[in-house]
Each structure stands twice: as C-alpha cells, then as structure tokens.
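Morning, I've got a small favour to ask if you have a moment. Here's the protein in full, and shout if anything looks odd to you:
***
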Amino acid sequence: MRSPTQVLETALELGFDLAGIAPLRPPRRAPEYLSWLEAGRHGQMQYLADWKPRILDPQADFGRPGSLLVVGFAHSRPAFELADGTRVARYAAGRDYHNVVGKRLRRLARRLRERGLVREFRKVVDAGPLMERSHAAEAGIGFESKAANLLHPRFGPWYFLGELVLDVEYEPTPVPPAGSCGTCRACLDACPTQAIVAPGEVDARRCISYQTIELAGPQDPGLRGQHGPWAFGCDVCSEVCPWERRAPDLAARLGTHPVLETTTAADWVERPAEVFAALGGSPLQRAGAEGLARNAATALGNRPTERGRAVLLQALEGSPSPVLREAAAGALALGHGTEAPVRSALERAAGRDPEEKAALLAWRARCG
C-alpha cells in the first residue's frame, strides 16, 4: 500500500478541514444498518434499502480495489431563525452544501490526478451508496456519538462529510481524534420527538429533520406539536452537545440565502410557489414547495399569531394542495383550537371534500 501523506495534504490545501483514508471494504456498522432497515426506521427513504448491496460491498460497487478518501468541511455558525422566530437548520441557511462540497471534491480529484495520485475515482456527497459516518469514523476524522452523528474535538457536530472512492490502495489513517460522549445523554433527553431511541440509534420516522425534509405527504399528527418552531431540519441534538461549544463561527462559508432574510413562515404558506422559486441554490428546495408550506404551517400552529391564523385559514379554505390544507387544519387545531371561528372553518372544510373529511374532522375533534 502507498502512503497517503500527499493525498491528505492535497485535501487540506484545497480547503477541507479534515481528511482521512478508510479501507474500501464493508462498513463496520453494517449489522446496525441491516437491523435499522429491518425495523423500518428508514421510513420513506426507500433508496437506503435499494442501495443495500452497494452499501454492504463498496469495493464490488466500485468495480476494483481501492481506498476511500473521507473529508470534512466545517460549517458551524450561530443558530438561525426567520424574522418571526421560525427555525431553519443552521447548515441550510446558506448555499447548498451538496454543491459547495461537491465542487471542491471535483477540484481535489483533478489535483490528485495531476499529481499522479489517482486515476479513476467516484465522488459522493451525502446522497450516495456509502455509510458515510461509519467509514469516516474508521478513517479517523471523528468519533461516533449517541446522536448517531460524528463529533470532532474542534468542530463538534458541525461538519459535512464527502468522499472520493480512489482506485489506489492507500494506507488507512485509523487514529480517531481524542474524545467521547462518556456518560452524557443530553441529546437523548433533549430530542423533542424522542427520535433517538437508544445511544447511536435514530428512528428517522420520528426525527423532525425527516418529517420536514424527506417525508412526502402529511406529517405524523402525533408529532407535530413537538416540532416547535422548526420548518426545515432540526439542530436540537447538536445544540445541546457539549462538544459543539468549541466550534468556530464559520457562517461566512455558506452565507445566508436572501430569501430567508426577507420572508417568514406565513409567507411560505401564503406564497409557496413564489418562495420556492426564489430559493434557487438553497438546500431548502429539497422539501419542495408543498413540503415547505406544510412545514411552515406546522410551525405557525406551534407559535400562534394573528397573521398566522389568517394565512392558515386562507390555506384551509383555498389552497389547491390537499397536503397544505390538511397541514393548515392541524396547525389551526393546535394553535387556535379554542376559537369558535376556527372550529367552524374546520367543519366547513370537512364538508367540502369527502376524501379529506376524516382527517379534518379528526383535527376538529382535537379542538374540544
């Protein structure tokens, strides 16, 4: 095997904060991954099941022996919220990290080729058939936490992972950074929906990030009241982690999308197509226009205001999206259910569409 020194130095030269080499072999966490799938904890993320053969044998998927270069790109920044207090995950406040990290990885691959350090490669940023965190821990760029993410002594939980699958076998760099969760269980105790079902094990179906990003259709009625102000993603488990306090402020790296500086959750519900179209280059677009409006409606229900009630009633009575109409009904029941006009609006809406009647009447019943 070849020494990875030049490869790692090149990665750091191009602006990555962390770099390590893992063997191109089945992930150490494969048994946990299989149990997680078997329990159905991936929810609607069917691609994670469809990729099972590729995830379990990355060398066969790549088609030849090689190594896995894992990099970390830090993104720590202060907590972010819209002008009305609606929360968006910190990583999502600026440019889409898939693009930022992906472009940097392509430049890294070209530089490695120029230096004769690699011939063929495959780039992965988040959406790829790799157990990123398992391989990254094996490469020594973080230690596994009870929240099922990676922690680093300097950057805490605030860094993205990216990978280059290389066609050269380099010596692994398995020395992990010093640190551990110890007896701390802050993330398990603080999770609003109890999605961290055991140390290192997350039921995605209960996670606010899944409910606001990956989930299509209506959100779980039993969890919406625990979503609090979150309209895209959730940072609670990271914000309570003692390791996050050491991270530097790197907000300038991804910046802040201008739409998030000028809109509120009410705008997302009132003008979903317009807001979505203006979010070009933002990771928030992953949720789709309907998903963002649905999320914003839930946030408005958890933080009731006069304007929020007005736009929710407007959506309930006039939105062409059944998902948004149902979300508005739930938000009105949660935030304004004691108000007679709201109860009457829910009854009228239930009478207009037989297909939605049961769901809307269920929310009306929760009003008392």
Q: What stands out?
A: Residues 97-114 form the longest helix (18 residues). The first strand starts at residue 18 and ends at 23. The radius of gyration is 22 Å.
